[in-house]
Design brief:
alpha/beta, globular, 236 residues, seven-stranded mixed sheet, 7 helices, four-stranded antiparallel sheet
């Protein structure tokens, strides 16, 4: 059992510890539990850390004393990519989780219009109650594909809908990425947090993006995790 904060956070990097990820479904104080459409969702807390789990898999974690900090390595990698770009005016986030990305964007880009789309009402309720940075406008309960039909003039689209198990089929369909392409401004950027242990799925995604964006993407593997970060720009 984990007992001290050093078991949760790597003191040298400020990132959550792999041991915490493996044991997070049993650690801390249970703040919330609910079963929704066959999934069980829970929120747990220890000291200043609060985290969201779906089916005992850690989805998001925040430091309640600094909710804008990014504690996952793939999120810090994404932040490094964002910081190298011109600040956005319009951001569309597909997939909310515990809202760590949303909170960071509000803090880092206060003048940007950030819309977060989440289909699961229970996750939205958990974010609002336990993780929110208290700016909940443009938080939309809807299907990502439906929102993309009318989205336009988007500078950044952040896609975080993949999971290791049962990723929605549309995430491997060309039509979905064509909607993203049309929603982006020229020179707009798509960021994907891709979770897969199967090389074939990664290659399928690369081919889809090549077919739609007409460029080769080089996914960045996050060491020690199944995450790959994919970045692709819509060329003018």
């Amino acid at each position: 059992m984990l007992k001290v904060m050093s078991d949760y956070i790597n003191v040298s990097t400020g990132l959550i510890n792999s041991h915490f990820i493996e044991n997070s479904h049993n650690e801390g104080l249970l703040l919330y539990w609910h079963k929704y459409n066959g999934d069980h969702i829970q929120v747990r807390e220890h000291d200043n850390l609060r985290w969201l789990l779906i089916n005992d898999t850690l989805q998001s974690v925040i430091d309640t004393t600094n909710p804008f900090a990014l504690l996952f390595p793939h999120l810090q990698y994404l932040a490094n990519q964002w910081q190298s770009l011109t600040p956005p005016n319009n951001v569309l986030e597909l997939g909310l989780g515990g809202g760590a990305i949303r909170n960071y964007l509000f803090h880092q880009y206060p003048h940007a219009n950030v819309m977060s789309v989440e289909k699961n009402t229970d996750i939205i309720n958990c974010y609002t109650q336990f993780f929110s940075s208290k700016k909940n406008e443009q938080l939309v309960c809807a299907d990502a594909q439906q929102v993309l039909k009318t989205a336009h003039n988007i500078d950044w689209i952040i896609l975080d809908l993949f999971s290791q198990i049962d990723a929605p089929r549309f995430l491997f369909e060309e039509a979905f990425y064509k909607k993203i392409y049309l929603a982006l401004n020229n020179n707009g950027v798509l960021f994907i947090n891709f979770l897969s242990q199967h090389e074939s799925q990664l290659k399928q995604l690369q081919q889809l993006l090549f077919d739609v964006f007409n460029c080769t993407v080089s996914p960045q593997k996050i060491t020690g995790y199944v995450n790959h970060v994919v970045v692709v720009t819509k060329k003018a």
